Amino acid sequence: MSRKQKLTQTMIQYLKQDNQGSLNTRQVRLFSMNRIIDDLFAARIVPITWYALTTEHIKKLVSYWQNKGLKTATIMNYLVCLRYFLNKINHTIEGIDNQSLSLVKPRNNMRPEIHSDTILNAINEPIAYLLFALQAKFGLTLLESMFLVPAIHIHENELWITREISTNRKDRLIPIINEEQQLIITKLVTLTENKKSLHQQFGEHHLRLAYKFALSALKLPTQVSYRYLYAKSRFDHLCKNHSKSDAKKIVIIETNINKTSPLWNTIHE
């Protein structure tokens, strides 16, 4: 029996007995492991057994895939299945995590280069206008914009985003510093009669439809959080009277972000 056949036989023996995950997940594992064995053979680096597989084998396999033009995301998915299998057979190999193999998914920057005022002037639908404006001019998330209640969360010179509606369950204050923001507040109060949120007044389904149609008409993606526009403009404004370091700290506090948030990169570019 050839090395390739031995690896395949062992792999099937373990995976056929494994019932973890959905049927689709198990099928993906089986397909991926067969692909890995085929490519170990094609790259002429087939080990005698799975227990003879080393870090060097994996590095050469990754290099082989890269030379064949496989996308980084695809390689990473294959390695997830390989690491799962190696864990099942109790064979630990150091240095085969994505970081050690220098595998990083390219950032898909979907954020369009737009000017918030231009977009707001082009949105005629009042609900969509407010949902976009609260993100772009106050740094709220879309859900926070839906659940904001004027009578509770709007004070004289600031928005008080309480943990009840905050996306990360933390309180924060956002200053109201210009007439443009005040105009947005006035429109929100009028549309919600001050005592209700947009969500209470119209329902989430209607809100999302109005938002989707308005942004789609302007060829803007609806899955993007537009609070990055607030972060950028607020940071630029603060830099006039503060150091960049202090300006970053203020924006971080006002938006309640951390290093894992995509918004973090906006103020650290």
UniProtKB/TrEMBL annotation:
UniProt key word Membrane: no
Pfam family, one: Phage_int_SAM_2
Regions annotated as coiled coil: none
Gene Ontology terms describing biological process: DNA integration
Keyword set, alphabetical order: DNA integration, DNA-binding
Ranges where the Core-binding (CB) domain occurs: 5-90
Gene Ontology MF term list: DNA binding
Name of the protein this chain belongs to: Putative integrase
